[in-house]
Amino acid sequence: GFIQVAAGYQHSLALKSDGSIVSWGYDGHGQVSNTPSGTGFIQVAAGRLHSLALKSDGSIVSWGYDGYALVSNTPSGTGFIQVAGGYYHSIALQANGSIVSWGRNDYGQVSGTPSGAGFVQVDGGESHSIALKADGSIVSWGNDNYGQVSGTPPGLDFVQVACGYYHSMALQANGSIVSWGNNS
To answer: Quick one: average pLDDT of 56-64?
Structure first.
C-alpha cells in the first residue's frame, strides 16, 4: 500500500495509498515523532533533519529541525504541486510554475532561486538546488564548489532531475543519464 518514499539524513518517510505518512529512524528533532497523522497527503520529502509533506489541497506541512526556520518559514496557503528537501533548505513548486525556497542561505540556496514561471520539477542537494523547466532545460543555483551549478548541462531534452550531496543528475528523453559535480 505504499506509493512513494523519501530519505533524509538518518530518517525515512513513506506515503501510503490512503494518503497517510509513516516515518522511522533518527528522531532527535521530531522528524519521526512529529509526523502528521491523518490522510490527504500526496507527496513526502526529507531534508537532513526535517521533513515536508504536500497535501491534496496544495498546502505544505513541515516538521522536525527548525534551525534556519525550516519549519516556521514554511509557506502558507495552497497552490503547491511539489516539495523537495535540501540539507538545510527546502524548495516548493507552485501550480503556476514558479519556485519558492526557504531555510539556510549561505550559498544562495534561497536568494538565488530563479524567478518566473515555467518550472515543472525541483530538487535540493546539500547547499544547491536544481529545477527542470517545461521546455526541457535545467537551471541550478547555490553552492558551486564542485561544479554542481556551473556544470549544469545545456539542452532542451531533459525529463527529470535529482540532487545528491555535491552532485546532480538528469534523465534525458532518450533514456540516457547525465551527471555533474563532485566525482570523488
So the answer is: 98
Helix (H) or strand (E) holding 63: strand 60-64
Q: What's the grid cell of residue 147?
A: 561544479
Q: Residue 34: exposed, middle, or buried by beta-carbon count in 10 A (0-12, 13-18, 19+)?
A: middle
pLDDT of residue 166: 98
Find, among 115, 131, 125, the residue nearest to 82 by Cα: 131
Residues forming a β-bridge with 142: 128
pLDDT in tens, 141-153: 999 999 999 999 9
Which phi and psi (to 5°) does residue 10 adopt?
-140, 25
Mean pLDDT of 8-22: 98
First to last CA, the chain: 37
Phi/psi at 69 (5° precision): 60, 35
Phi-psi region of 108 (alpha: psi -120 to 50; beta: other; left: phi over 0): left
Q: How confident is the model at residue 70 (pLDDT cuts 50, 70, 90)?
A: very high
| DSSP structural state of residue 145 | T
